[in-house]
Amino acid sequence: MAPVIDINLGGCYSVKNHPLSGVTLLQWARLLRARWTQIDYLTYWPRLIFLTLLAALNTIGAIADWILYDAKIRAQELNDEPVFVLGHPRTGTTHLHNLLSKDPRFAYANTFQVGFPSSFLSTSWLAPHMGLIMDSTRPMDNMALAWDTPQEDEVAVNQLSSGASPYAPLLFMRREPEFRKFYDFDDCDADDFARWRDSFVYFLRKIQFAAGGKHKRLLLKSPVHTARVKLLKEMFPKATFIFVHRHPYEVFKSAVTMADRYYWQCYLQKPRVEDVQEFILYQGELLHRKYTEDVRGVSEARKMEVSFEEVTENTVTALSQVYKALGWGKDFARFKPVVEAYSQSLRDFKMNEHKELGEDARAVVRERWKAWFDDLGYAR
Fold it and tell me: What Gene3D superfamilies does its record include (predicted)?
């Protein structure tokens, strides 16, 4: 499909904010062995050298974690009632995740932990110095980014599994179709699924251990989990799912902005604009289709849907409705002042102003995301 978007594909010397900053030498070697013919070495050699040096340092921390904590982590029981925040990227999942993380009943993965999943227990003293390799705001939307900010668990799993994740296309965008099997694993062989599952469960055990044990419910947010409701329900029968949705045009505009401002910091392979465009469109189709298919199997008491506008414009009311619908209502009075204080702290935050979509782009979004418009009642 011809491009209907315009994005930046450059920045080969950038080394900040890379999703593999915490990779170990073994994980890095496995990824390179599988993808060595697909890397554009002449373009991205500074990034490759930087990641290799980091991998050597990360390996020292990983060995310390393994010696000191591995047996305890593997013995750690998981709280069997995790809460998953779902939604397509750019629908407000981060905002809701941040809000819910203020509730002390929850344990969540922070930026340092997902960035350095193999070593964070023994290297946590380095967390305040993350500014050396990470910006203080997210490149795509200027939201605050700090070492203790709640973050997406799939970032960690992508590293631990050496790329058995839908996040791997950010490295190899021209090969994006090869990673589609990692959304729902329907077409995934047993070995590849085991790479993801074992990495995911091990990371959750590690987060649960870091939180002091199984008394806290895990609060998890990765947009790709939106395609995994059936699988996650099988793994955690008592799981709760909160789905955030937003107008497809706004999501597409925001996704294009994210690609323009951030994706180029990740590439190890030079993509084409049409590769990135297809990644955005296909992901939107798949996440919506799989969610609508799978969520029917979840009991009403363990699922809730809320819109981007409700969460951002009427935050306290929206959170109150979420808590009531999920049977947590009696606890909201205690939590309400925290929500109000956090919302007040964001009073001066200004959301991105995105480029308006041309008619060609709007037509493509209407065609590819038709079910999204229809199912959620959004005007075309």
Answer: P-loop containing nucleotide triphosphate hydrolases
Largest CA distance in the chain: 59
- Number of domains composing the chain: 1
Q: Does some domain include residue 201?
A: yes
Q: Is residue 5 part of a domain?
A: no
Buried b (16+ CB within 10 A) or exposed e, 86-107: bbbbbbbbbbbbbbbbebeebb
Domain presence at residue 2: no
Domain that holds residue 34: 25-313+350-376
| Predicted model pTM | 0.95
Rounded distance between C-alpha atoms, residue 315 and residue 94, angstroms:
13
Tens digits of per-residue pLDDT, 228-279? 999 999 999 999 999 999 999 999 999 999 999 999 999 999 999 999 999 9
Tell me if 319 is assigned to some domain: no
Residue/partner pairs of 41-50 with CB below 8 Å, 24 or more apart? 43/12, 43/270, 44/12, 44/267, 44/268, 44/269, 46/12, 46/13, 46/15, 47/12, 47/13, 47/14, 47/15, 47/18, 47/268, 48/268, 50/15, 50/18
